[in-house]
Each structure stands twice: as C-alpha cells, then as structure tokens.
Specification:
The protein is about 70% helix and about 0% strand. By secondary structure, the protein is an all-alpha fold. Helix 2 crosses helix 15 and helix 8 crosses helix 11. The radius of gyration is 21 Å and the shape is globular. The two termini are about 30 Å apart.
Length: about 350
C-alpha cells in the first residue's frame, strides 16, 4: 500500500475542496441533451440489429448480426450504468423505470441486483472483504486467496492471466445466473417485477432464436452473441481497478477512490467505446457526474491530486490490459510454485 494511501487526513477535507472546484465549474450539472441523443442512438442500434435479424432469417450470416448484437447489448448496459448512478434522471422513479427496461428487458440482467452490487463496489473499491468485484470466485485478485485452492480452481488460477479473455466469453451467462440467484433472496426490492421482466427477456430472446433460425444456427448465434457481449463488457471494466492498490478501509474518501482507480487515455472514440469508464478516477470521485463532463473534470482532478501529492494513474488502453494481466499472473504465483 502506498504512503499516500496511508497518510492520515481530516475526514473529507481534501475532497470537500475538490468538490467545490468541480461544482463551481458546473460539472455536476445534468446533461439532458447529451443523454437524449445517446439514448436515441443506442436504441436505434439495438432496434436496427433486431430488424436485421428478422429480415435476414435463416442464414449463417446471422453470426455477423450476433456479433453486432453483442455490441448493442454492451452499449445498453453502459447506458444502464449511467442511469443507475443517477446521472440521467433527477428522480429514483424514472431511473428505476428506465434501468429495468434497459437491464432486465433489453439485456436480461437484474437491474436491482447489479445496482446494489455496484454500489458496494463504489463504497469500497478493491477492498478484499467489502468490494464484491474482487471476491475470490473463478478468478482471484489477492495472493492470500490462492490458499486452499486445488483441482480445476487451482489450474485456472495458475493460468488466470492467459485465461482471462477466454473466460470473459462466459461473463454474460454469469451475470444472468447471479441475477436469478439474487431473485431468491427475500430482501431484494421489487423481486416479483424483476423476475417477471427477466422472464419476458428470456421468452422473447429464446423464442426469436427458435422461430427465425435452425437449431444449429440458433445455437451458434447464442454462443457468438453472448461471447461478444461478455468480452466487450468485460473489456470496459477490466482496465479500471485491476492491478491497483487494495486499501484497508482507513483511507479518506479521496485517496480511497483515486489510488484504487486507473484512467485510460484516448479521444472521443475511446469515450464512446468504454462508455466514459476510461475516466474512472473522476467517475469514482463523482459517481453522479454525467459522462460527458468527466473529460472536462479530468484536468481539475489531476492538478488537485498533484497539489496533494496523490498519485494519479493513467495509461493507454493496451497498457492497461497489460497491467491487469500482469497483476493476475503475479497473484497466481503461489499456485504455480506448488504445481
């Protein structure tokens, strides 16, 4: 853990000063025109792929449509992410309405489950015990998690850097399984509604495959679509925290968010491809800040971190993946020594 992360501060003092600068620049203001355009474009992409699927009919060219549908699903998911953070609508009512349409109906993932999980991640990013995104499951994110692993789990973790991208092809299925498991928990809000909307998605999606395609085409379409969706979605999140420090929970808000996050450099195309998550530091500091304002907030945050002596991590897209994979390889080292 870095010395900057350990440095004791008055609670919230550093962030309060940064927050004032950001607010004075008007960067916390909503951007309804931007989101109106973005929602229209994403909806058009989603609908266009669906129309192409119906028009093309029984054809192996549908595999190209499947790949495009994977892109469309990811863009819908990224938009649902902004909705869940309150970046788009002022009220929780409209956020939940649009979030469930985008998440449950369009993508087939429980919006309520994901929002709760993602909120816990934002509260304690990269914390070994409190961040659900770094809990040891198929992959492990801390060396001590290698203890007690054996059999197939140990094999995967020994080679997890090389298996990372292939395993992402299963991410969309994992999200669906986790969504269904969450529906079994009594404490989940609007559990009946969430379940009904997920069932609607499953019936519409699987029904369309069965009606339009032959069984073999349907199976191939499903594999390509879900694989592209999983890989693309995983690639938007992988650069953000993997390989960054793991805090112990005693840090102030600013350091906890900045030191565990990594920005990815690039222009507007990277912004669009990653849904603005390439500005991860700014997003974690100001989760409700509209995506188009993150780029404008960056020089303010970067300069302020330099004033405080807080490291501000930033790298190119390819290098961000290298760092994440290098970290995964290092975490699996104890298992490779035992093999």
């Amino acid at each position: 853990m870095t010395s900057a992360m350990k440095r004791p501060r008055a609670a919230g003092s550093d962030f309060a000063a940064l927050n004032r600068r950001i607010a004075e620049a008007g960067l916390l203001d909503r951007r309804p025109a931007y989101y109106a355009v973005r929602m229209t474009v994403v909806a058009a992409l989603f609908a266009g792929v669906g129309v192409a699927f119906v028009i093309l009919g029984e054809s192996w060219w549908q595999l190209a449509v499947a790949a495009l549908m994977g892109v469309a699903f990811t863009q819908v998911g990224l938009l649902a992410h902004d909705v869940a953070h309150g970046q788009v609508f002022r009220t929780r009512r409209y956020s939940c309405l649009v979030g469930r349409i985008a998440g449950n109906v369009a993508v087939g993932m429980s919006y309520g489950w994901w929002q709760e999980k993602h909120t816990r991640h934002h509260n304690n990013p990269n914390h070994d015990d409190l961040d659900p995104d770094v809990q040891p499951e198929v992959l492990i994110w801390a060396t001590h998690s290698a203890l007690g692993r054996h059999g197939l789990s140990a094999f995967v973790n020994r080679h997890q850097a090389g298996l990372f991208f292939p395993l992402l092809t299963l991410l969309s299925l994992d999200l669906r399984i986790s969504s269904v498991k969450a529906l079994r928990r009594p404490g989940m809000r609007r559990r009946g509604l969430e379940a009904g909307l997920l069932a609607l998605h499953a019936v519409a999606y699987l029904g369309a495959l069965a009606v339009v395609l032959t069984p073999w085409q349907a199976a191939a379409f499903f594999v390509v679509h879900q694989g592209v969706f999983g890989v693309y979605l995983g690639m938007t999140f992988a650069p953000n925290h993997k390989g960054m420090p793991h805090p112990d929970g005693t840090e102030d808000y600013l350091r906890k968010q900045v030191l565990t996050s990594r920005n990815v450099t690039g222009g507007r195309l990277i912004d669009a491809a990653l849904g603005g998550l390439n500005h991860q530091i700014e997003h974690h500091l100001f989760p409700a800040m509209p995506t188009p304002n993150l780029r404008r907030a960056k020089p303010i945050v970067q300069a302020y971190c330099a004033e405080l002596g807080v490291p501000y991590a930033e790298t190119g897209l390819i290098e961000s993946y290298r760092q994440a994979l290098r970290y995964l390889h290092e975490v699996g080292e104890p298992l490779r020594r035992k093999a």
